[in-house]
Amino acid sequence: MTTAAPAPAPGTAPVPARVPAWAAVLRTEARLFSREPGSLFWILLFPTLLMTILGLIPSFREASDDIGGRRVIDLYVPVAVLLAVIMAGLQAMPPVLAGYRERGILRRMSTTPVRPSVLLSAQLALHGVAALASAVLALAVGRVAFGVALPGQPAGYVLAMLLTTASALALGATVCAVSRNQKVATAVGSVIFFPSMFTSGVWLPVQTMPGTLQRIVEFTPLGAASQALDRAAAGSWPAWTDLGVTGLWAVLLTAAAVRWFRWE
């Protein structure tokens, strides 16, 4: 025989269901993340702002035979997408994770039922979502303001974007793993940040680099990602070599971050 649960007393509200620990951590981290205007600006707005400034240069809106009849601004939309994941992975996330370790937050969490990995996963998810939102914004502004065509191979573009985001965040996690504190994480992230901007094509699109330099850059995670995104944007399936290089970097950097990361 089953017994019905007693009804709540008049004038009292029913006790709400317990929120899962991971959901509570994610909600708290999202609230803290939303209170960081600097991170939000550099991840969400700066890539599109830079692309817009470059798009206002008249010569960048003219077709060039040197790049297959396309315009320079057509190449810079994928670059803006890459810049978003670079900002998230190297500038925004490492200081946060290193700060948690430096202040003993991860060590204290290790004594509770909520594992530190839940907190780290929440940070990875939030920065990944922010980078993807920035990519959507760059695509939309490029289309509306400069007539840049949307990716001609959407499935390939999404796959390349996911691999790119994974490799950039894994690189940021590795920076955090080898950094003793927040200041070191910021310094190391900045040292890697500028070469990453070069290999992703921020200063010079990878497609316009000299042959030898382009082949070297294509073996870096962001150089390969730039080529994969550009081919998908042009309507072709990304080369499996570029996808493989980007994915391999994501796996290797993730393994390195797991191997070297310390909770305290």
Secondary-structure topology with pairs:
Blueprint: H1 21-34, H2 37-55, E1 63-64, E2 70-71, H3 72-102, H4 105-109, H5 116-146, H6 154-177, H7 182-200, H8 211-217, H9 221-234, H10 240-260
Helix pairs in contact: 1-5, 2-3, 2-5, 3-5, 3-6, 3-7, 3-9, 5-6, 6-9, 6-10, 7-9, 9-10
Membrane topology: Multi-pass membrane protein
Subcellular location: Cell membrane; Membrane
Keywords: Antibiotic resistance, Cell membrane, Membrane, Transmembrane, Transmembrane helix, Transport
What does this structure look like?
With 264 residues, this protein is mainly α. It has one domain (25-260). The chain contains ten helices and two strands, in the order H-H-E-E-H-H-H-H-H-H-H-H. The protein has helices at residues 21-34, 37-55, 72-102, 105-109, 116-146, 154-177, 182-200, 211-217, 221-234, 240-260; strands spanning 63-64, 70-71. The longest helix is centred in the N-terminal third of the chain and has 31 residues, at 72-102. The chain is elongated, with a radius of gyration of 22 Å.
